[in-house]
Each structure stands twice: as C-alpha cells, then as structure tokens.
Amino acid sequence: MIRLEKDGGFWTLTIDRPEKANSLTREMLTELADIATAAAEAQVLVITGTGKVFSAGADLDEARAGLATDPVWERLSGAVAALPGLTIAALNGTLAGGAMGMALACDLRLAVPGAKVFYPAIKLGFLPQPSDPVRMAQLIGPARTKLILMGAQKLTAEEAYAFGLIDRIVEGDVLAAAREMSADVLAADPKVTAGIKALCR
Question: Using an 8 Å Cβ cutoff, are 31 and 42 in contact?
Fold first, then answer.
C-alpha cells in the first residue's frame, strides 16, 4: 500500500490504497516514517497518492482504536521536515485530517484543481498532532489556522492557494510538475540545497 520508486536522486513515495481513499493505517504510517527517516540521500522526495484522493487521513477503524493519537504521526512529519533535500507533497486530490501533517512538513505543496483541504479533528473529538498547528500557522497565520482546525472549514484548492497553504495549482499531471520543478535541485550540489533550506528556516 506504500510504493517507493527511486530514479537517481528523485524519490517518489506513493500512498496506494485508492479503494479506501488512501486512508492510513499504523502499518502504512510506520512504513512512510521508516522511508522518510532513511531518505537523507534523496535529493528530492515527492509524496503523492493513487486515484482521486491524496489521503483521507487515518483509517477510521484504527483511529477509534487509538491511531488518531499515536506518536507515529509526529515521527513521520518530523522525519520529512528534517530531510536535507527538497520535499514536495504532490496532491493528486483531497488532503484530509492527519495526512496534512506530512504535507505541512514538506517544503512545497502542489495540488490539482479539484483538491480539497480539511482537518476535521474537532468533529471527531481528537486534537491535531502537536506540530501540525504550528507548521500551519507558520504558513497561513494563526487566524486562518483556527478557521481550518476549529471552524472545520473545507477549503478548495483555490482557497488553499490564496491562503498560502498550497504553493501551486497544477493542471494535468501533478507528479510531472513536481519533477519539472525539481530539475535544478537534481543538478545541484546537495550541500547547496541543504544550505538553502537551512537559511530559510
């Protein structure tokens, strides 16, 4: 349900559970976190999904059994955020719930026009993962973060772009757009890429 493809320094992580809207089980999250932890050699890491949804967040059955508050979410987003290379969330569709953590931890977020973005933790009775509101507020400010997390608002791709939550809306193949955007990073000295990231923090 998680596929990793390596093309030189360009790594693609694909969530491949379209029949369940790419909802995430503990096993899937652990695999994603393990790969992200080991991906320091990747010049570019792209995370995407199969089908029309990037990820619906936690598998609901597992969420009710404790997955919603499991530390594996923080382990995953922390591993992505710590990578020295360029990280891109290529949102092939809707991004929901806890899955937003790994997208927020990426350097860039690209999305197809029909994507929606929402984080319904308050409706489900769960707190968001600790780093998610912090990263979201750094991108879009505290008031808009509260609009999403407390107002439980579902944003269109266009609204998310206007807020600054999505960096580019892509017509067509979002993975191809991520690869095109990565060309200069793939051609650069990895130390330069890591240095630029450090200066931007």
Answer: no
Angle (CA) 128-75-180 rounded to 5° is: 95
Which of 98, 104, 110, 137 lies closest to 48, judged by CA? 110
Pairing between β-strand 155-156 and β-strand 116-118 as defined by DSSP bridges = antiparallel
The domains located in the chain, with CATH, are 2-200 (3.90.226.10)
Those residues whose C-beta lies under 8 Å from the C-beta of residue 155, and which sit 6 or more positions away, are 116, 117, 118, 148, 163, 165
Contact of 96 with 118, CB cutoff 8 Å:
yes
The Cα diameter of the chain in Å comes to 46
Q: Which residue has the tokens 């993962």?
A: 129
Tens digits of residue pLDDT in 160-183: 999 999 999 999 999 999 999 999
Task: Calculate the dihedral angle through the C-alpha atoms of 5, 104, 130, 156, rounding to the nearest 10 degrees.
Answer: -120
Residues sharing a CB contact under 8 Å with residue 81, sequence separation 6 or more, in sequence order: 105, 131, 135
Strand order across the beta sheet in which 10-15 lies: 2-7, 10-15, 44-49, 86-91, 108-111, 168-169
Token couple for 184: 């200069």
Convert the pLDDT of each residue in 20-43 to its tens digit.
999 999 999 999 999 999 999 999
- The pTM for the full model equals 0.97
DSSP state of 115: -
Q: Tell the residue number behind the tokens 């240095």, with chain if given.
A: 195
